[in-house]
Specification:
Strand order of the largest sheet: 1-2
Number of helices: 8
Number of strands: 4
Strand content: 5-15%
Oligomer: single chain
Shape: globular
Length: 171
């Protein structure tokens, strides 16, 4: 049963409805497993498709809808078995710099993120040698209060996509 392939960033940003009958899968456990799947799709770590099939989550009040999670995991098992990762949309530095990152009162420091993305854009255009490992290990300061930063989840998703593109390029 073929499904459309999801990128690591799409997997990482997946959300599920809450269960209707009071109980559902523990959101923290499901979210942590989604990160493992995204890491496997991006080439950061190994995850066998059978692990996706066998994963078990605790049931908790107000948890994620079990059917939605199970259907998503079936899709991810198939994608991991097929070894499919869709191409990224970051072909050039202009593509990277065109991404609009939402702001948040608690987020990553905008100056640090902007400087990093400028270096990454130059690298995508052949004017630098940034590696996927460098992207993976990048850390930014966080802001709070009056200094608004970039939404951490949005930046992390963009970094996933950048890392994936650099891996495809053999860096």
């Amino acid at each position: 049963m073929p499904f459309a392939s999801l990128s690591p960033a799409q997997v990482r940003s997946t959300s599920f409805p809450r269960g209707r009958r009071g109980k559902g899968y523990d959101p923290a456990q499901v979210d942590a497993f989604l990160i493992r799947i995204a890491d496997a799709l991006s080439g950061r770590s190994a995850l066998h498709p059978d692990e996706v099939r066998r994963v078990v989550f605790h049931e908790v009040p107000g948890g994620y809808d079990q059917r939605s999670v199970d259907e998503f995991l079936t899709r991810m098992e198939w994608q991991l078995r097929a070894g499919l990762v869709p191409p990224t949309g970051l072909r050039t530095g202009a593509d990277l710099l065109a991404v609009k990152i939402p702001r948040s009162s608690n987020g990553y420091d905008r100056g640090e993120v902007d400087a990093f993305l400028a270096r990454a854009a130059a690298s995508l255009d052949g004017r630098g040698r940034m590696t996927a490992t460098e992207v993976r290990h990048t850390r930014f300061s966080t802001t709070s209060g009056l200094r608004r930063g970039y939404q951490t989840r949005a930046v992390d998703a963009l970094l996933d996509e950048l890392e994936q593109e650099l891996r495809f390029r053999g860096r």
